[in-house]
Amino acid sequence: MKKLLALIIVVLAFSCKNEPKVEVGPKITITSDELKEAVTYLSSDELLGRDTGTQGIDDAATYIEKQFESYGVKPYFETFRDNFKLDSLDAFNVVGVIEGVDETLKNEYIVIGAHYDHIGYGKPVENDSIANGANDNATGTAGVMAMAKYFATRKNNKRSILFALFTAEERGLLGSKHLAERLKSDSLNVYTMVNLEMIGVPFKDRDYQAFLTGYELSNMAEKMNAYAGSKLIGFSEVSKKYRLFMRSDNYPFYNQFKAPCQTLSSCDLTNFDFYHHVDDEIELMDFNFMANLINSTIPVIETMSNTPTKEIVMHEAE
Question: Which of 37, 186, 203, 248 is the most exposed place for a label (fewest CB within 10 A)?
Answer without folding.
Answer: 186
